[in-house]
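Friendly challenge for the regulars: who can give me the structure tokens for this chain first? No prize, just bragging rights.
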Amino acid sequence: MKQRNYSIDFLKLYFALIIAVWHTPFPASFPVFDTSYVVCMFFILSGYFLVASFDSGKYRNPWDYTMNRVSRIYPYYFAAFLVMYLYTQRNSGLRTLVLEFFRSVPEMLMVQNTGIFSAGLNYPLWQLSALIVVSHILFALLGWNRQVMLNAVCPVVGICALNYYLRVHVRAELPGSPFIETSLLRAAAGLCLGMTLYEPVKRVLKHLEESSCRCMPAVVSAVSLFLLPVLWTNRMTYNVLLPFVGIMICMLYSRSIWANLFRSSKWRWMDRLSLGIYVNHAVVARIFEEHQAICEGIPLPSDLVYLAVLIPYCIGMMWLTDRLVALGKKAAAGAV
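First reply, four minutes later:
Bragging rights claimed.
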């Protein structure tokens, strides 16, 4: 059996840490880049792997694909929402508690950011909500006509949607019109661009695997080392984002030092930790923001203090959620 490559899980963990620090008032003491690019790269990578999931044949229909994803993440998503709800309403009366709970029903259903509802209490999860909704639609369209989608629809939708977002929204954002309102547009742009990348990148990877050149791993590794300063010096632009992600996938999945490094099962924990940080960081960031003066008085970089609290908290929340889910399944089995 072919051993799994955990390099993408490492990338997701790095992205989650960047987003987690970005939502605090503290400057980062480790190499980061603008979260706008992180979000866009996350959508592009998700689009690429959406096609891979479709081609795998594991899913019978779009609902099978969507429910498989939702069932995996929803317990952690709901637990994080519940903690944020209780924290933000800790000083509220009963009437406000009930009203806010019913206002949060769309967020509990993961449809809070589909252009109809507000960002929600656990606001960073707009990205997850938009990703689930748009991925379901695109998966269904792949079943309709894969070739037309990958060679015509996805390139046009991706380029036009991203161009619209950049021109109308990023350059002319108006008060009272937050970026969250374009969440489906942002998701559609990135996902379609990632789907467009799938066939070209697949061909390049095949060529790299079949190449008899012994120096190919060294060449791919050298290219990856050249790309690192682009990430760490904030030289990334939307103009080079798509080819950059394509090269990055080739770097991580070809015969490079990175692919060999992450083919060990010892890295399998990164996927869960990245999910835990992503869904749980908002409440910790809010607490640190409310006590910013105290944090800045500690003789250590504030972002590292924040992460030192955040990571154990996320691990604990994931563990507790797993235990509660297991107890629920046991009780349900006993009732039957």
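The chain has one domain: 7-327. The chain has 14 helices and no strands. Your move, everyone else.
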